[in-house]
Each structure stands twice: as structure tokens, then as C-alpha cells.
Design goal:
With about 150 residues, the chain is of the alpha+beta class. It is built from 4 helices and 9 strands, in the order αβββααββαββββ. The strands form 2 sheets. Strands 1-3-2-4-5-6-9 form a 7-stranded mixed beta sheet, sandwiched between helices.
């Protein structure tokens, strides 16, 4: 009996998080820029939530990325905008030099995000042959601390 409960639990969580009609990741295909993690939740159903990543070199600040995201959600899907809560839970920097992606640093506005989780989410935005690496900080364009993403 216990063997059936765990898989069912994971199926329920997966199916509820996929009900949220937002792509997991939207980031630019190359360059260095800021990114944020946003937790999207249904306040009436705590199991219906997911974390998404947004980033673009178009925006100089993490708060600009969040503001643009919220403006787009409000303009394109009023039901989503009114039914869910959207909370920025951290930020960082991303350097995309095909076929490499590096995540590092933090946001002065939203704090540090979980780069391991970001690496897993961002993996869906890039081809399978891209390497995704993360580090807590970066100095002089070299990584202080480098680790392969758990997705590889």
C-alpha cells in the first residue's frame, strides 16, 4: 500500500503545478544579465504552485524584470492575474555564452535565489548539449566556485 501512495502524491503535485499556464523559463539566449525566480501560487490550493525563472538583458534591475512580468500577465491573462499570487523569491545573474550557461550572485532587491533550482528550471530553455553551472559569487569574470548542475 505504501508503494502506491508516494507515486500518487508526486502525480498530484506534478499535475497541479502544470495547471498554471506559464512557461517555466524565459531568458535571453546569450549575453550577461540579471534574472529572478518567481513563486506562482494558488492561494486556495497550496499544492498548486510552481517556481518560474525570468531574465533579460533588456532590464538593468531585478525589480524591472518583475514589473515587466507582472504587466504582461495582467495584460494577457486577467484570470491568471486575479487568481494566483506572484512573489519574487530571489535573483541572480546569468552569463550565456553558447553552449555554456553560468548562474551566480544575488539580487540586492530580492536576495539570493536557489541557483541549483534555477539550473534545473533553466535547463528547459536551452538545448541538451548546453552545460549549466552555478556559483555563489563571481570575481573578474572567473568562477570562484564551480559545480555541475544536478541535471547533468
Amino acid at each position: 500500500m505504501k508503494g502506491y501512495l508516494i507515486p500518487f502524491f508526486f502525480v498530484v503535485i506534478t499535475s497541479l503545478s502544470t495547471k498554471i499556464p506559464l512557461k517555466d523559463c524565459r531568458v535571453d539566449s546569450e549575453g550577461e544579465y540579471k534574472y529572478i525566480q518567481i513563486q506562482v501560487s494558488n492561494p486556495h490550493n497550496p499544492l498548486e504552485n510552481k517556481i518560474i525563472v525570468r531574465g533579460s538583458k533588456e532590464f538593468p534591475n531585478h525589480s524591472d524584470i518583475y514589473r515587466d512580468f507582472m504587466n504582461k500577465v495582467e495584460a494577457t491573462d486577467q484570470r491568471l492575474y486575479k487568481s494566483y499570487t506572484f512573489k519574487p523569491i530571489g535573483g541572480g545573474h546569468i552569463q550565456v555564452t553558447p553552449p555554456h550557461v553560468e548562474l551566480f550572485g544575488s539580487s540586492g532587491t530580492y536576495g539570493k535565489c536557489n541557483h541549483v533550482m534555477s539550473a534545473e528550471i533553466i535547463k528547459s530553455c536551452f538545448p541538451d548539449d548546453y552545460s549549466i553551472k552555478y556559483a555563489p559569487m563571481r570575481k573578474d569574470k572567473t568562477l570562484d566556485y564551480e559545480r555541475e548542475s544536478p541535471m547533468e
